Amino acid sequence: MTWVKLDRYVELSGDTVDSVQSRRKVGKWLDGHQCKIVDGRLWINLRAIDEWIERWEDKGPSLAPLVALRPPAKNRLK
Question: Which residue ranges make up each domain of the chain?
């Protein structure tokens, strides 16, 4: 099964509805790829979410040294 309704995704993953909506709002999850609305219900693409998680794991740690080098917020240029 590739697509599940939001309620089932929350049950399977332990994720929250709020976190799913937040990812959609900020553009981390794209409608039509990781999720989509069908007949007024939000559906989640489990395969696309697995791919997103794999990419996150691949990219996340490699960015850690860059974040450590950033100056404190009060010293950054705007």
Answer: 3-70
